[in-house]
Amino acid sequence: MKAMIELMRKIFTMPFPWNLWVIILSMINFIGGVMFISTFEGKFSLFSMMGAMIVMTIIYARYGFVRLLGLGHILFWLPFVAFCIRQLTNGTTLSASFRVWLLTVTIINSASLVLDIIDLFRFLKGEKTEIV
């Protein structure tokens, strides 16, 4: 639990605009997940957030605040984003608010995944020092 609290403190004290980015990312996933908890996608969003946080906490406890942390998002958000894209493109009728959230969370999480994949490659290439 201590490692998770320390990780959250590091995340939310990152320099601007990264701290704002993390807040927006978290809010879109969390609020949408809660608003649409009756749907599989809402549950999947919350599950993905929790799973990513658990993986990131384990990585943080072992290696510190390093570029490998994005692996948590890659493992959990990649399937979530793929599922959201499938839902948006399969022709199913969705309510307007649900469609807007799915589209927004897909775009935001995809942008995060791009950054996380870049960070993962940078870590694998040898950038293993703490990033903040």
Question: What does the model show?
Answer:
The structure is a single chain. With 132 residues, the protein is mostly helical. The protein has one domain. Helices cover 77% and strands 0% of the residues. It contains five helices and no strands. The longest helix is centred in the last third of the chain and has 29 residues, at 96-124. It is elongated. The two termini are 21 Å apart. The relative contact order is 0.14. The model has no long low-confidence stretch (mean pLDDT 95).
Tell me the layout of helices and strands:
Blueprint (H helix, E strand, L loop, with lengths): L1 H11 L5 H18 L4 H24 L7 H19 L6 H29 L8
Helix pairs in contact: 2-3, 2-5, 3-4, 4-5
Q: How much helical structure, as a percent, in the residues?
A: over 70%
Give me the number of helical elements. Answer: 5
Number of strands: 0
Helix/strand order: HHHHH
% residues in beta strands = under 5%
The profile of the biggest β sheet is: none
Radius of gyration based on Cα positions: 15 Å
List keywords for this structure.
132 residues; single chain
What is the compact description of this entry?
With 132 residues, this protein is mainly alpha-helical.
